Amino acid sequence: FKAQSLLELFMVTCDWLEEEIRGVIPDCNVEAIDLNGTQDHFHIRVISESFEGMRPLQRQKLILNHFKPYIPRPIHAIDIKCMTPHKRKMQVIPYSIHMLEEQEST
Question: CA torsion, points 10, 66, 45, 97, in degrees to nearest 10?
Fold first, then answer.
């Protein structure tokens, strides 16, 4: 009970989400977006070679299982898009400046 109460007071940031995901999938390129500015609804895009050969649900479960203790509080909703670099190249994806800067630095 006490641990859950403390989690409810924790404010989630996009930077924190990205770092947590890098802890689960170290080779990934990740971007988290706070959809409503309320720090509880997020879109997360994760691109990783390690997703090769995995089904979409398997990819998402890696991330969802990590964040289970934080759902439904302080995180209410997470929209996750996981793909391989090859799949990303095959799609037209709107990039944020954050993602473009990460690509240029690698």
Answer: 40
